[in-house]
Specification:
The N and C termini lie far apart (126 Å). The model has no long low-confidence stretch (mean pLDDT 89). Strand 16 and strand 17 (936-937) form a beta hairpin. The chain is mainly α. Among the domains are: 1-37, no CATH class; 89-195; 240-325, no CATH class; 348-394 and 679-771, no CATH class; 405-485 and 608-678, no CATH class; 800-884, no CATH class; 1008-1086, 434 Repressor (Amino-terminal Domain) (Orthogonal Bundle), CATH 1.10.260; 1103-1223, Orthogonal Bundle (Cytochrome Bc1 Complex, Chain D, domain 2), CATH 1.10.760. It has 44 helices and 17 strands. The strands form 7 sheets. It has a 5-stranded antiparallel sheet with strand order 11-10-9-8-12, with no helix packed on it. A two-stranded antiparallel sheet has the order 1-2. The protein has a two-stranded parallel sheet with strand order 3-4.
Amino acid sequence: MADRGDTHYSIPKLNSWFLVSSILFLVTSVWMVIDDWDRAWKPYQREFRALDIAKTEQALAGLETEDFLSAKNNLEASLAAAREQLAASSTELAVLETEVHGLKEIAYTKEQEAKTAKAFFGWERYVTEEELLEQINAGSADDGSERRELRSDEKEMFDLAKVSAAAQAEYLEAQARLEQLRSEVSAAETALSSGTKDLRQLASKLEQLAPSDGAGQVANMVRDMPGLDFVEPNLKVRKVVLDNLTFELNFTKKTRIDMCVTCHMGYDRAGFEGEAQPLATHPRLDLYMTAASPHPYKDVGCTICHRGSGEAVDFVRSDHRPDDEAERAEWSEEHHWHKQHHWDYPMLTSENTEAACVQCHTTSMELIADDAPTVTAGYRTFERYGCYACHRVEWFPTARKPGPSLLNIQTKVRPGFLDAWISDPESFRPSTWMPQFFHLENYAPDEVVTVSRYGEGRDILGQEWNETMVGAVAAFLRSAAPKQELPAIPMTGDAERGREVFRLSGCLACHNMAPFGDEEPQVADLALVHGRNNDVGPNLRGVMAKTNPEWLFAWIKDPAAWWAETRMPNLRLPDQDIADVVAYMADDPDGYFTDVPEGWNEFQSPVERETLAELARWYLGKSGRTEVERRLAGEVPEHPWNDTAYLTKEVGAALVRHQGCFSCHEIKGMESMMPIGTELTNWASKTVDLLDFAMSYRESLPGRPALDHHYREGWLARKLAAPRGFDHGKVKNPREKARMPRFNFSDEQIEGLVTFVGGLVNDEVQRAEMKPAAPQAAMDFGMRVVRQKNCEGCHVIDAGRLAFTNAAGDQLDVSCEVMPFPDEVLPPTMDGLASLREQIASWEDWMEEELGNPVFRLLEPTPEIGAPGQAFFPDLDSIISVTPPRGGDFVRLVNDYYFNGVELFDSDAQDEDDAWYSVTADPEGEGAVQDVDGQFRYYGEEPLDKVRWTFAPPVLLGEGQKLQKAWFYGFLRDPDALRQQIRVRMPAFNWAPGEAEAVADYFAYKAREEWPSRYARTMRLALGLDASGERSWPAMRTRSSGGQGLDLDEVAAGARLSRRVVAAIEAGAKPETAANFKKLEAWGASQGFTMTGAVSDSYEVVERRAPSLRGARTPFQSIGHAVAVDGVNCFQCHFHGSQGPDQLDAPLSWAPNLERTRERLREGWVLDWLWSPALVYPGTSMPDNFISDPPQYQEQYQDSDNGQQIQAVMDWLYNPERWPAAIQ
């Protein structure tokens, strides 16, 4: 603008300032755009892109080995040769192509003519029918002309169809000749394409990530520049809208949107496991993120599990959460991290992430146990300690009162025991689940609890306040449960025999007698060790200091008569056996049952009158101050509180109501009272401001979980560790003080409970939660019942597993058991790799020699090793992990007794070598064990397998494949003796409605779920064996002359699946099994392989008893009888009907009653069992009776082979009512 001299300001100066401001505005605008463009998440995407390029190049380089390139060159040369050969036939090819083209046109023309004729015939038929109908309606006669004309049209249609078919056949024949001419080129092209598929995919991917041409490189740069990044940018926010998931926002349910993968780029990509966050692969791709997993990213996103703010793409605003103080400090330094105070969904720590599993899996907690160990441990702790009894959780499946009934407490316990127990349960039994209510920190002994008489009397201290409360509660409970006179024990017990009955009848499957605290047992006795399952019932050490012999006899005889909801089963023991057990426990020759912790004594807690009156003022004061004082003065005859004994009971009842004892225990008059604790159904949806941190967060108390007032977890952990700790520093009257008792949880239990309770949130997954199908629901219920009834105490439910690297470098994970070390009777335990190494080191120290490699025995077909029963010797250094078997600890204890007796320690022995000795009930002192026939026999020299399979509880591996479900259910409801020789009987459990059915269903569905994996492994093993043309399993195993299982690549190629998918099916992976097993099964069938099918979920029918088949096979029943009785001699070992075996004086050889087969066992399982018992149960005493070549038993069944003999024996087994009367 020109300066005309008539302006107030100098125009040149204004121009200068305008220039400066314009430049500043431009710079600021550019700065703003760049700052807005340069988001914090973009460097992560650039870094991941560079990492992806590097890994792709590395993978390409790994493929382009000398062998690969040589193979690629050979394939290309084969293709070139095929093309050259085809070019040499170019004239013939051209003629044939022309011929095919012409024939195709002719075939098409003829097809259209045939279709036209067919359509015309259809129309003419319709017209003819209409005309005939009109004639009928008009009463005219049919002269047949229309029908003749229609038949002529039909003939023309058929003639044209014939011509069309001939033209089509001629065309297809020429097409086949053309394809045959081109076949070598097609095959070479397919081979080259297949052989270089991975190379082409990687090269294509690399070209997309890092284009080799300049135009592509420029395009990649330009598309991410400011202002141009709206057109297909590489760097962009990545989000998923989760229509079925919500979260609460201002009283509304908002659709959940997650953008977490904007930074976490490698979340679903295998190969980035070792990278730092946020670029690393999710640690469990088998469960999360991938499309094949149960929780695909497109359906569940991230924040439904991890929580936090999914719509934020900033490190701080997404509400990341540090795991510890060191990480907090690091984040504060790097990211200026701080808690987002107004976000109500803070991210979970890595230790508590499993909490999110609860919201979707309320009806399937057992199904997720293996994949969510922390939250499962918390769930089971919550159940075991009875938290649900005081704190309602709407969906929680267990409802029984967790504590024993107190209706007979005076009859059960000794007079001075009750006060001592109520005062401090742990002082008597450190492992108890009963919490401590009294003598806790908010009633410290020297602390003034209150001033009596409304502040006008004396100070009442915590010590007398607690003692009086204990005395009052004990007095009330005694008054509510009058003592009953129990009948005398009907016979004299034998303590020495009782020790053996106690050991072998199953008591120690649920109970132990471990020393108190950290004290180590003086003897090697499994009963003195906390096992995996022997603490389901209470520790029995010191139990006779608590109860009396008469009550113990009545309890063992019928537990449900004393506690209707007890899980203690009826062991179905004869009275003499019970009397012997009671005598053993009462006389206590081993010093276990009267042993009590140091310093524990019975006592009667003192009740101080003035303190008692003050308790009445606080806990019975609803009638008003005046009325309370009148009652204390004895002026109200209906409430004679001047009588100390009466007032003690009244105060005791009030304290029981206040403390909520009735929630866990059945107490007379309080059966219908409601729980006193806070409902926890959606506790974890509480905002932190609703939690009372009191004074605690201001100071750090030693030995207690740290608090952070931003989060719930620290508060909950502190509450569990010190339930009354939040009263610290606060002024409260007795009724206001915290009343949650102290459970003395371990740090691991607290972590599990915090995780579980942290998952109890408002329902935000209504449309996405897991809704189990009928089989899943049955399995979940059944798994819970199996766990609660402690079936695992006696039985092996799942075999142990060993993961190791074989000589070929392949990592195997096999089902197996470890065999005894040299010169040892019992095998080492499979409690983990560290434990196995310790046992090996201990053996080597004792034997003063090196063990070498441990020996394992397969329990399932493993193609790389062999069939069940095969021994293998992995190098100890190659072992990756050892997974313990699920259940069966009692089996080891039984074996130990039969071989070694009970080891005891004589503290008075003069010679230390004589201090340790072993005993059984043998009156001769020779280590013999009493059998069910009353005879003592020595088994110390017998094979371990024979003793184990004869006298210990059976394994339940594949039990659903074995048992008919209807029989199994009936057996659970009303068990009887199947194995007459075994001392431990299947007990009669106190089943709630639906529980027995659930157990039977669980094993059936479990077998059905495991079958595809077993089929895949068995097939791969079987097809690699040389079995003389036999292709059915297990028959082919008995005819095998050697061989190894097929390689995974061979099976994968045959079934047209990838090696990874076949391996996943063999491992039991559900997504791969559901998607691809049918293909694998079809290929196996095409190779002639067969095996017993999966368990059907429909009604079970025993085909051999079906009338349609039974009559046709009647002759074979008599043949089967001859083979079984005269040939195999089954009755030598087996019971039959009401008759015992021929070897009646040898219980070690006894076997189950064959008459029960028809109702008990599935036909397919019996078929497999007869072919090869050792393939079903490695180590069993049942011999292989049908493996001879040539076949035996020709005298009984002429010109028969093994399979025919087995079929005849099965006809006989499943029709016992047709047996000769002499053997029924």
